[in-house]
Every structure is written in C-alpha cells, then in structure tokens.
Specification:
By secondary structure, the protein is an alpha/beta fold. The protein has helices at residues 13-20, 52-61, 75-82, 85-88, 91-103, 168-177, 271-284, 372-385, and strands spanning 25-28, 43-44, 47-51, 67-68, 115-117, 132-133, 137-139, 210-211, 236-240, 246-250, 260-263, 266-270, 289-291, 311-314, 318-319, 326-327, 333-339, 349-354, 363-366, 397-398, 409-410. It contains 8 helices and 21 strands. The strands form 6 sheets. It has a 5-stranded mixed beta sheet. It has a 5-stranded mixed beta sheet with strand order 5-9-10-19-16. β2 (43-44) and β3 (47-51) form a beta hairpin. Bound molecules: S-adenosylmethionine (SAM).
C-alpha cells in the first residue's frame, strides 16, 4: 500500500513555514500504511504531527509525477495537419504556433516568448506541425520512472553556500567533478566551486555533469545551485535557414558564455527503441535523436570502451525549440548532463549551455558529434585505415554549418 500523506490545502501553510521554520509542526493529519515515514514520531490525539522535514520524507514515498510517451496529446497537430496548406502557411498559423509555445512555457516564468520569424526563405511560415511542444521528458516503454527515493538532498537554509562543509549537494557535485579537476584543486578563475555555477548562474566548467539541488532540498528557490530548474532567461527565435531547415537564433542581446539556454526535451527511450527509430529517420534524412553516452558514465568501468548506453532522447514527436538546434563544426553551445529530480545516473536531463559569447541574432548550434577535436581524430584514423565512416544505412547530408574548419558532412 502506498503511504497516503495529504497535507490539506491550508492558506496559512506558507505563513507557518515562514514564521516557525521548516522544523516546526505544520499539521496533524491521518497518515496510514506500512510505509509511513519513520520520521513521524509525535502524535496529537492519535494523529501524527507532520513537520516540513517529515513531509519531505513522506513525499519520497509517494509516486512521483512523470509523463508517459504513449500519453502525448496530438489532437492539435492532427487538426492543423487536416487544414489546407494555404492556411498552414499563413501568418495566422504562425501566431497560433507562437501561442502554443507560450502555453507550454508555464514552467519557466522568466523566459522571454519565442518568436518564429519570417525571413522569406521557403514557403513554410511555421515549422511542420509534427511534434508536441513541451519542456518536459516523456518516458517510452521500458523506461523506469524517476528514482526519487535515492535522491540526496541538502538541509541548507536560504541559499546554499558552496563553501559549506555540510551541504550534501555541494559534496555530491564535488565528488562528480573530482575526476575532471587536476589534483582536486578548483581553478581560482572558477568562483562558486564546487558548484558548477557562479553566483549569477553562469556555468563555470564545461564538459562535467551538473548536480542541482532537488525537490527535497531545504534551500530556497533562488539557491545558486538551481539554474536549469529555474528555466530559460535568454530570448531565442525559431528562424528558417537557407540550407539546414529551421534553426534557433539568439535575440537582440549578446548571450554570455556559460548561459543556460534550454533542455533538449522529448521522449526518453530505451537504446533499442532509439536504434529502431534511427533506421527510419535515416531514410527520412532528418533526425532528432540524442544518445545519452556522456563521458562521466564510463568512469569506474574497468574498460571504458565496454560502456553501453541505455537511453536515447528523441525530440521528433515531442520537444521544444532546442529540437531546431542545428549542427556546427565550430559550435557556440554544448549539451551538458544535468541531474535534478532523478537519482538514476543514466537518465540526466540534457541541458544546453553556451560555450562562448553569442552575438545578437547569431545562430545557436551544438556539435552533433560531441567534442569536435575527438571527432576529427576519429575521422583521420578511419581514413588512414580505409574503414567505412559510419553505419550502413546512414544518409549523408552535406554539412552546411559554414565554419572554416567544417568536416564536410553529417552522419
Ligand atoms: C535536430 S534537427 C535540427 C532542426 C532541423 N533543421 C529542422 O528543420 O527541423 C537535425 C536535422 O537538421 C539538419 N541539419 C542540422 N544541422 C545541419 C548542418 N550543419 N548541415 C546540414 N543540415 C543540417 C539535418 O537534416 C538534420 O538531420
């Protein structure tokens, strides 16, 4: 039986929390079931006293909220696709698309609205109505729900102090960063360490996994270790490109290096499902699959090459503006593994950050191959051996990134 912990909607709850702190009783409620949190030890007239701390403990026992890919709502897409092409290519359809995006942005209150600009390239006024706009992850068949029971959380009051010796979140971040730092010493140019962010939320260290404070941490919403979960702050636009289909462009402001841009959202699929879909997308010549095979997942394995990735994100049927990020051989963004409310190390969120300053209206791109230097070395090695460069059914697209050191083709 699941623990039934219901804290009645009480307009005074927040007031109580503010006045007495989180260790104080907030309610005495019926709480039943064998898995009632062990932290409930005091009772009033037979009812357990729920404190904020025991409430947080009890929350771990409740089923967590998550989305299943099979429940993706697609009636709007079906209706739009049933309309004549002339309507779908009208300015009105573009306004509808922008409104749909706006509606899905309730989880990022400071995010500027996303505009779809008509630059006269091509016939389409909006991207195809082939996907559900969402900032969330949708779990495919065989993908387990988030592991919330094993989340480590901090008991910090107010904003977490990166220098704290007791903050469980800074300890966890330190532990995961240590393989990437020479002699365990953080560079002086890296304020905020061991958190990966400085006090303004700018990412200080690229290429390492991020461990943010989570839903069970006691710290406040403005804690410096809550950047991805606070949502996008920078303006982005969806614009048609000459040779790469739709793309994502910065707004009127320069975006500094290390800025959070968005989550590569979509369906989280098993490797097998991703592989099957990959064959179809290769025939189609357009793919939105991202394989979760970050370097840190190999740490600790006897043979790093024996690593087998478990999950893939597919943004074809569901996703947000990040699904329009094109590839560049000289990228200004990268995807970083970010952990928040799931303790399963194989299921990070894919967070997009800038890796250099981005000019106003510049296109935002990341490398579909990860580190480009490694990719170049790999290609040179394969060429020397005369080995085939990629999988049999891969459809090669000429890379149109336009960078001076472009490797020439995609996939
Ligand atoms: C994740 S989607 C990016 C959004 C895509 N442009 C669209 O219109 O939906 C990946 C696809 O975009 C195209 N693409 C991305 N980067 C490209 C590049 N550098 N050169 C040519 N095509 C590119 C390829 O068709 C690729 O399969």
């Amino acid at each position: 039986m699941e623990a039934a912990v219901l804290l009645h909607q009480n307009p005074f709850q927040d007031g109580l929390r503010d006045s007495f702190g989180r260790g104080c009783p907030v309610a005495a409620l019926p709480l039943a079931g064998p898995s009632s949190p062990s932290s409930v030890t005091e009772f009033i007239r037979g009812y357990p006293i729920i404190t904020w701390r025991s409430f947080a403990a009890a929350q771990r026992l409740l089923p967590s909220r998550y989305n299943l890919a099979k429940d993706l709502p697609h009636s709007l897409q079906d209706r739009m696709n049933a309309l004549p092409v002339s309507y779908r290519n009208s300015d009105f359809a573009r306004t509808v698309f922008e409104e749909v995006i706006l509606e899905a942005m309730t989880d990022e209150p400071s995010a500027p609205p996303i505009k779809i600009y008509d630059n006269g390239i091509g016939e389409e006024t909006t991207p195809p109505w082939e996907f559900v706009y969402t900032n969330e992850m949708w779990l495919g068949d065989g993908v387990p729900p988030p592991d919330v029971r094993n989340l480590t959380s901090c008991g910090c009051q107010g904003r977490c102090d990166p220098k704290s010796k007791t903050c469980a979140c800074s300890k966890r971040q330190m532990q995961w960063l240590s393989p990437y730092i020479r002699d365990g010493v953080f560079p002086a140019t890296w304020p905020g360490s061991p958190f990966v962010y400085d006090s303004k939320g700018i990412l200080q260290r690229e290429g390492c996994p991020i461990f943010e404070c989570n839903q069970f941490c006691d710290c406040d919403d403005d804690c410096p270790n809550r950047v991805v979960q606070s949502g996008r702050k920078w303006a982005v636009n969806i614009v048609r490109t000459e040779q790469k289909g739709w793309g994502v462009f910065a707004g009127a402001k320069r975006i500094p290096r290390g800025s959070y841009i968005g989550i590569y959202a979509g369906e989280l699929l098993t490797e097998q499902e991703g592989e099957d879909r990959g064959h179809l997308y290769n025939v189609f010549g357009r793919t939105y699959l991202f394989t979760i095979d970050f370097h840190h997942l190999r740490i600790g394995l006897e043979d790093e090459d024996s690593f087998e990735n478990m999950y893939v994100v597919d943004a074809y049927h569901a996703g947000n503006f990040t699904r329009f990020l094109n590839h560049s051989c000289d990228p200004n963004c990268e995807i970083v593994a970010c952990y928040i409310n799931d303790a399963d190390v194989n299921k990070p969120l894919l967070a997009v950050f800038t890796i250099r300053d981005v000019d106003p209206w510049e296109e935002l791109c990341f490398s579909y191959y990860g580190d480009m230097e490694t990719k170049r070395e790999e290609l040179a090695e394969q060429k020397a051996k005369g080995a085939p460069i990629s999988r049999q059914d891969a459809v090669y697209v000429r890379c149109a990134c336009g960078s001076a050191n472009c490797i020439g083709k995609l996939f």
